[in-house]
Specification:
GO terms for molecular function: DNA binding; DNA-binding transcription factor activity; nickel cation binding. The protein has about 140 residues and is of the alpha+beta class. It contains 4 helices and 4 strands.
Length: about 140
Amino acid sequence: MTLENDLSRIGISLPKNLLDRFDEIINARGYSSRSEGIRDAIRTYITYYKWMADVKGEREGVITMVYDHDQRGLLTTITDIQHEFHEIIKASLHSHVTHNRCLEVILVHGDGGQLKALAERLMSQKGVESVKLTTIQIEE
């Protein structure tokens, strides 16, 4: 069993603008180091993953996604993915945030596993900055 105090060193590559934004946040929040901020971010990611694993049964929800529309092939890929999941997508709204950043909101209804699969497919695409799935259980 590995304790949180047993540290492992890793190396990661990040775009400068992402690291600069991260540094601003950890400084504003008073973290003592980047490492502490990264540990906190990983804990949050794990918590969100566990929460998503619990999305079961019939659900109504929304997927919010921010992406770079200049990323080669991304628009076609997003459209293809949405066509694969057409039975659970009820509506979508697209907004241009900046010249190359877009926000898309997708209303979904169906089995929680399918909703989660759609969100995970979208979030794994290169050029997608963030994907957030929020659902509520359908009560009868």
